[in-house]
Amino acid sequence: MDTPRGKLTRRRFIRETVAGTVAVAGTPAMLAGLARTAQTGTARLPWYRRAYLWGQTNITEKDPVRYDIDWWRGYWKRTEVQGVIINAGGIVAYYPSTFPLHHRAEFLGDRDLFGELTKAAHADGIFVMARMDSNRTAEDFFKAHPDWFARDLDGQPYRAADKYVACINSAYYDEYLPGVLREIIERSRPDGFTDNSWAGLGRESICYCDNCTRKFQAKSGRPLPRKADWNDQAYRDWIMWSYARRIEVWELNNRTTRAAGGPDCIWSGMNSGSVTAQARSFRDLKEIGARADIMMLDHQRRDDDTGFQQNGDTGKRVHSLLGWDKLAPESMAMYQSGPGYYRVASKPAAEARMWMIAGIAGGIQPWWHHVGAYHEDRRMYRSAEPVMRWWKANEQYLVNRTPIANVGIVWSQRNTDFFGRDGSAEVVDAPYTGFMHALVRARIPYLPIHADDIERAAAALKVLIFPNVGALSDSQVAAIRGFVQRGGSLLATGATGLYNEWGDPRPDFALADLFGCHRAGDAAPRATGGRGGGTDPIGAFAPSPSGHTYLRLLPELRAQIDGPRSGEEPAIAGPRHDVLRGFEETDLLPFGGSLTPLKVDAKALVPLTFVPPFPTYPPETSWMRQPTSDIPGLVLSEHGRSRVAYMPADVDRRYAREHLPDHARLIANIVRWVARGTVPLSVEGIGLVDCHLYEQPGRTILHVVNLTSEATWRAPVDELIRVGPFKVTMPVPARVTKPRARLLVSGSAPAVAVAGGTASFEIASILDHEVVVLE
Ligand SMILES: [Zn+2]
């Protein structure tokens, strides 16, 4: 829609004019788009590469009789939005659709609310993504097309409340929805489309409709699996087939919208920031990232396990797949969305603000989200405005930047599926989260790295972290070996590489030689079967019966343990390894997990060993029955320039669960040891802050988010707590000799001292966040 008018071909001009309302709705948008293009000098970029600030009023069925469009236009303007998401069709139509079963909003009457809003937005120079919500219908639709709906094993339709769930393999997706998309384009010419729940039934429900039965048999040569069983090849094939179908739908929708609306009329379905949530709905984040022109994230809030920092992590994860030149706006609830769920009550302003800021720091573009067009709690209209106005003023430093980090945390959705199985929150997400929290706490910048991208990402990285990444394919293992051969270092925990890409156990760690240890003898992998998915052959991931276990700190020279010394008091002497720095006053660390023996190579060091469980209660019984063991908790080795730390102990997951500072310190120490002192950032000062380092031509940028608050670990935060001062050392931008620092929030310009390619300065204080531009 923002093609310069003079360049419209005659044919396209006629086509758009013939399309009726198009010329009227499109022209102001074109002109406004041109005006903005002239200002920002981004003429050649399509709209989805320069719509940074977003808003969405999620329209309820009641809204057609109370939607005050003029008021909302004022709100768009106050919040500087450049793109809006407007409900069009799907479960509920907000325009008079000619499809008789396309259910019109109860209070729509003959109104074309979608069309009116699209016209208003275009007149204001704002891009429109038509929002679909297309996966279920009312009963009349089901009765007219019973073969388009998902069925359980007994042939009964899958229901969601009073609605019927459409089958992703049916003509509902192949024919009906494309028809609706074309109708919306022809009527109102939105700039693109998004969809709230485009991926159909989730993993929890196998569809046995005729379409699925026939198509799965044709594709895999087997009948559909009767139940979820991760060890059954039919179930595995069904998982992969289900993923592939979502990509087909993604591509079909894009072909449809581009054919009807022009090459920039894209379709981009919404995605979650949680890999486990993506896995449960067959949305392959990597494959989608390779196809999406803009990533529309539906990720409204933090949870208590992951904190605000999770939004920065999501931004980095998504951009590592999309590239840093594309945009990733994220729907952010302005209503209270957890704990508790109150659609028409304002989220505490500080909570809404910090979620927005944490996302921005990771490369996410803010998108306010209200449910309903009329609110009696008017405080929610005040939360987004200051953040978005600040963004607008500082936009050039917040996009088109690339991260500076030499530590990567490896993940893959395949690992979430086939290693995590039904327990991925505990087996996959928690270890990752533990590292995320520990690195944030230590102010060590990192990037999430997909396991298939190791070779591509390796050049910039010194360290790869594998948080219990059980499932690794042979090619991923080969890429890791290549990384180490080129001098890269590893930190791996738990069952990393102990399984193949299907989650089937390997006889030994795929990287055993690099880890400096092997699975011990006859500890055969436990067959799990069924849905349990407790893949746990070395016992590293089952809490001990009491959970009352410890790790013993050993002197460095004791490279190998001679054997168990039950009943003896330990006599530990001699200097300790660097990874145990800061623990001089203790010989024990709390652990809480369980470990089993490993065979350790002669050259490897074991600075931590397992202390088996003993009672906690009654207190009279709480003494160590076995103060020492030969079971390693950490194995360190060096291979040429590479350092490898393998930690069987699930300290990462324990940190995510228990937040014990000892665990965070241990993790940070190990990361710094494998990185050989190359971490590019140092931030000294009191407080929990999340640091993101970037570069642009001629400048380096540091975004510091203050996570210190009266609700640091538990939403919602009401009061922010100012922290500082911080002494910062960060890289001087390339080809800059005397850099100056500017702070984009406080507005101050601290003095900079330069030494050896790094710049040092002080940030006096930070309330919510600060952005340092060094140029
Ligand atoms: Zn089906």
Structural key phrases:
single chain, 775 residues, alpha/beta, 20 helices, 34 strands, disordered N terminus, binds zinc ion
Summarize the structure.
This protein is an alpha/beta fold.
List the helices and strands and how they pair.
Elements: H1 10-18, H2 21-40, E1 54-58, H3 69-78, E2 83-90, H4 113-123, E3 127-133, E4 136-137, H5 139-144, E5 159-160, E6 163-165, H6 171-188, E7 192-195, H7 210-220, H8 233-261, E8 266-267, E9 270-271, H9 275-280, H10 285-291, E10 296-298, H11 309-322, E11 329-333, E12 335-336, E13 342-346, H12 349-361, E14 365-371, H13 380-394, E15 402-403, E16 407-411, H14 413-418, H15 424-442, E17 447-450, H16 454-457, E18 463-466, H17 474-485, E19 489-493, H18 512-515, E20 517-519, E21 550-553, E22 588-590, E23 598-600, E24 605-611, E25 632-639, E26 642-647, H19 651-658, H20 661-674, E27 682-684, E28 689-696, E29 699-706, E30 726-731, E31 741-743, E32 753-755, E33 758-763, E34 769-774
Parallel strand pairs: 1-2, 1-14, 2-3, 3-7, 7-8, 9-10, 10-11, 11-14, 16-17, 16-18, 18-19, 19-26
Antiparallel strand pairs: 4-6, 5-6, 12-13, 15-28, 20-23, 21-22, 21-24, 24-25, 25-26, 27-30, 28-29, 29-34, 30-33, 31-34, 32-33
Helix pairs in contact: 2-4, 6-8, 10-11, 11-12, 12-13, 15-19, 15-20, 19-20
Residues 150, 167, 169, 207, 209, 211-212 line the site of zinc ion (ZN).
